[in-house]
Amino acid sequence: MKKRKGFNPKRRIVAGGALAPDRLDWLLVQVTYTGNPEHKKYPGDYGLSPPANPRPGKTLCDARGALSKSDAEALLKSGIGKGMVSVQERSGWPQNVWAVSDTGVVFEAQLENREEGRYHGYPMPEDDDFRSEVIREWGGR
C-alpha cells in the first residue's frame, strides 16, 4: 500500500508530560469529546445530526466496532492525564491529544472548537510514522 501524504510532520508531544497540576486539573474538567460525523461509521450515542455520513478518505474512529461517546471521552481525558498533549496550542487548548486504548489502538484527538475545548478523534493510521512515537511515550508515562 502506498504511504498517505499529508500527515502533519510538526506534531510534537509535550516533553515528559510537563503540565502544571492546576492546568492539568482545569483541562480535565473543561474538555469534551463531541465526535465528527466525517469520522463515524456508527453514530451510537453521539447525537450527530444530520445522520453520520463518513467522507471517503477519512479515518473512522469506530471502524473496528462501536465506540461510545463516554469511552471516547475517557480516552481523551486519559491522554490529557498522562500529558500526551501537543506542544502546539490554540487559545490555551492543546491542538492534539493522543491516547492508546486497552486493546492497543492508538488514537489522535484534534481540537475542533477552541472556544469550548471540544475535540474529535480517530485511530492513527498504521502508516503514520508519528504513531510509533505515541506508543513509545504512552508506555513511558
Write up this protein.
With 141 residues, the chain is an alpha+beta fold. The protein has a domain at 15-36 and 66-139. 23% of the residues lie in helices and 18% in strands. The protein is built from 3 helices and 6 strands; from the N terminus they run αβαβββββα. The chain has helices at 21-30, 69-81, 130-139, and strands spanning 32-33, 89-90, 93-94, 96-100, 106-113, 118-123. The strands form 2 sheets. The chain has a 4-stranded mixed sheet with strand order 1-6-5-4.
Poorly predicted regions are: none
Distance between the termini: 32 Å
Q: What is the ordering of alpha helices and beta strands?
A: HEHEEEEEH
Number of helices: 3
Largest sheet composition: 4 strands, mixed
Q: What order do the strands of the largest sheet run in, or round the barrel if closed?
A: 1-6-5-4
Q: Which quaternary structure do these chains form?
A: single chain
**Residue share in β-strands:** 15-25%
Classify the helix fraction into a percent range: 10-25%
Radius of gyration: 14 Å
Mean pLDDT: 83
